[in-house]
Amino acid sequence: MSDSTKTAGSGGPRRRRVTENNGFVIAAACLISILVILVGGHLYGRWLSARDLGGRDNAIEQLRAENQKMKRQLDTKSAQATQLQTKLDQVQASLDAIMPSANTYNISPNQSLVVGNGRLTVGMVGAPGNEGVTLNINGKEQTVAAGQMVHEAPDASTDCTVQVQSFDMFKAVLVATCGGAKPQ
Question: Distance (Å, rounded) from C-alpha 139 to C-alpha 166?
């Protein structure tokens, strides 16, 4: 029995050492596993962010290219719009010269016009002076300054007004209208 006791007794302390060593190994393995997981997670996160940044950089480059294309198109359209506006202004000026606004007339020195729906004959006598123009309205000469209105009644039921809008050395711009009864 003593042999069996020795065998049994000697095995006890060894098991304790193995169990104590197993606890240390398990703790070390857990610690190493946690460190591996942390480092692996960190590296995986960096890889994911680098991949996302690459996609972002590609998208930025694509948007820059599209932006440059749109700017070129905008510049082209702006130039075309400017050309069209210039042409429109020229056509409008030509049209205004041919057909001025309603009741607006350009008259040159020593020229006569029939205005006011055929009720008035207005002529400019000589060249305009510094302070006004001399107009012959239905046979009556009057000197009229810019902005001044002249009332004329060709008959009892009609009142006409002639206003000089502006004048220069070569022409005068008149507005002539005829309406109902003359004012009292």
Answer: 22
Q: What is the dihedral of CA 48, 54, 60, 66, to 10 degrees?
A: -120
For residue 181, is it left (φ>0), alpha (ψ between -120 and 50) or beta? beta
Is 90 in a helix, a strand, or coil? helix
Question: For the whole prediction, is pTM greater than 0.70?
Answer: no
The answer to whether the beta carbons of residues 176 and 103 sit under 8 Å apart is yes
C-alpha to C-alpha distance for 112 and 155, rounded to whole angstroms:
20
Report d(CA 50, CA 157) in Å as an integer: 92
Cα 44 to Cα 4, 52, 99, 167, distances in angstroms: 58, 12, 80, 85
Beta-ladder partners of 172: 107, 167
Contact 135, 123 (CB under 8 A): yes
Cβ atoms of residues 135 and 161 within 8 Å:
no
pLDDT tens-place string over residues 24-71: 888 889 999 999 999 999 999 888 877 767 677 788 889 999 999 999
Residue 79 amino acid letter: A
Contact 103, 119 (CB under 8 A): no
